[in-house]
Amino acid sequence: MLQGLYAITDEILTPDHSILSQAETALQAGVKLLQYRHKSGKDSEVEEVCIKLQRLCRQYQALFIINDRPHLAQAIGADGLHVGIEDMEFSRARKIFAKGVIGVSCYGDVARARLAQDAGADYVAFGSFFPSPTKPSSKVVPMQVLSEAKAALTIPVCAIGGINAANIHEISAHGPDMISVVSAVFAGDIPSNVARLNAVMQG
């Protein structure tokens, strides 16, 4: 199931008071993976919304992944966990989150991705490929990294960072297994956004 359009939530675009309806709309429209990314607040403050999001994802046969909260992912039985270089080492994350998918951010570093694969990561993510409104400080990496990663790795590869309906065809041409977006799904009309993105990915 590590394939397809991968939507990531955002504290501003998808606040907790509206996230469930927004997430369900995206899942109905064809999002295959949903990541809850909420960098503020304690696990206890977001646990209830994560439980409900996990339930929604199961209903729509999508994967639910929590960003950088291994204890919470373990506690609620989330489908997966995603960790970045500033979060924690994969080995520590796996000790806390014993079962389920773990993805690792590798930015533009294929060697790091190989290490993550060897350690047991289930997928790796590369980016940003374009300036990102969600992470304006992220470095832009060359798209060729995706082709190099696909050649070097056996686990699924995810592209992330500044991807939208106008440029997704450039990313799709390099064959990533998953393409991850935030505002390209959740800003504006969600069903139309998902339809446009999926049309390119599935075309």
Describe this structure in words.
By secondary structure, this protein is α/β, with parallel strands linked by helices. The chain has a single domain (4-202), classed as Alpha-Beta Barrel (TIM Barrel). Helix content is 41%, strand content 18%. The chain is built from nine helices and eight strands. It has helices at 19-29, 43-59, 70-76, 90-96, 110-119, 144-152, 168-172, 183-186, 190-202, and strands at 4-8, 33-36, 63-67, 80-83, 101-107, 123-126, 157-160, 178-181. It has an eight-stranded parallel barrel, surrounded by seven helices. Strand 6, helix 6 and strand 7 form a beta-alpha-beta unit. The longest helix is centred in the first third of the chain and has 17 residues, at 43-59. It is globular, with a radius of gyration of 16 Å. The model has no long low-confidence stretch (mean pLDDT 95).
